[in-house]
Hints:
It is a single chain. By secondary structure, the chain is α+β, with helices and mostly antiparallel strands. The chain contains 13 helices and twelve strands. A five-stranded antiparallel beta sheet has the order 2-1-5-4-3, covered by helices on one side. A five-stranded mixed beta sheet has the order 7-9-10-12-11. Strand 3 and strand 4 (about 135-145) form a beta hairpin. The protein is rod-shaped and about 180 Å long. The two termini are about 100 Å apart. Mean pLDDT is about 80; it is low at about 500-520.
Amino acid sequence: MLRRKIKYHWRLFLTGFICIWVVIGVFAYLEYRNNLRYRETMLVNNVELAVGNILDAKRVNRNIQPFISFMKEYLAGSPLNGMCLAVYDRSTGELLYSLGPVREERPVEADGQPYEPMPDGTSRQLLTDVRLPDGEKLFIYASRLSRDGVVEVRTYLPRSAVVDKVLAIDNTFWLIILTVGVIGTVMVWVFTAHQARNVTLLREFATRAATDREFIPMGDFPSDEIGDISRQVVAIYNSRMQANVRREREHVIALKAIEEKNTMRRVLTNNISHELKTPIGIVRSYLEMIASNPDMSAEERAHFLGKAQANVERLVSMMNDLSTMTRLEESNKKIPISDIDFHDLVFTLVEDLKQGDVLNSMDFLYNIPLDCHVYGNGELLIGVLTNLVRNSVAYSQGTQVGVKMIGRNDNFYTFSFYDNGVGVGEEHLVHLFERFYRIDTGRSRKVGGTGLGLPIVKSSINTMGGSITVRNREGGGLEFVFTLRRVKPGVSPATVVAEMSPDTGDAPRDAAAPDTPATPEKQ
């Protein structure tokens, strides 16, 4: 609980603060100890030097008294002032020379017992920070023998204020330690504040991202490693969010498409059910009438059977058209596409329509250049033109139908299929390609139409990568303007199939002005 209450910055700062002051403390302690040892060693060396000079003088039989007098004057202004030097004859114990007040006592240990005197065979004894039996503190007690063992020099240096001052560390040292500590603390504060800001921003980002779906991160992260990592995390988050938004949008679109498809399927099912009920009901009525009147004349029976057969043929035609629509919708790009000579196809179709008496008394005119090659499916193209012809024959009330090229560009040819009939009302034009749509229901059924001819035409053109529109002609009648892909050298039908989509966006919707001279229309 305590850790949660303390802010991350303060936790980070206190950790760094403690670490840096521990390092500074250890450094100060080691430096203080080394400095103190150095100062103690300097005092001890000075004492040893004085003793060494006395012993050297004794060794060469030089008079020691002048040196003692010199030492007395020299030590008067030094930290060794108050030091006692006593020179004894080791064999008799007689005091030969002395400097300062002579002390005969030897130092004692903490329990009051005297230290053992320098044992035989030892030329030197040195003790520091000890006491005399009377309680006086000594900084140094030293005992040293000459090389021949005749003379012993004892040294006593009391622990005086002057000695303490020499051993004390200068205040400058502590000021330096304090300055380094303060600077280090400030640096730790600045560094931890910088790092804590990065972590705080990243934490705020994570908290907002976890609780707010509409959150758009705009973190102003510093330019360092953690800032770079934070920006990368934000970038990954943004990418994931954008991907989720796209996924949700695509999901909504897919659901909408499924819903629309289901709606269309229901509408289509209802339309099919409605369209099938009428001919089936008519056939059933005729058959029941024949079955219920066994005495019916042969002429009436033949009449009713002919009506029933006509409606059966209508049912067959409707089922064939539905099959064609289903095949176009499900196969789509699987429809084989090849190079079609459109002029030859139209020429052959006109002859077949005349032979099959499909045109009745109408004339079929065509104006297609001889070199007009398109990418398409021959069966679908024949079906398109045949359905357009039958639609004109059944409903136009005209005397003439025709197809001609009215424009071209780099990718498409534009064609017009027209008749010179009565046309349709403008309010009906937008519905002509809808399934089972009829302008005059009674008349359509009378002529045997299924209501699927024009939808099949549109699906076929779109399947081959083109487009089709319908409008009323200025001189009367309807005009269907459609486009087909133009054959280009070096482009295979497979490439065209890969580029095609059911609703081509690059196909021209309006008739283009012809860029080739018009030729007389052929009948």
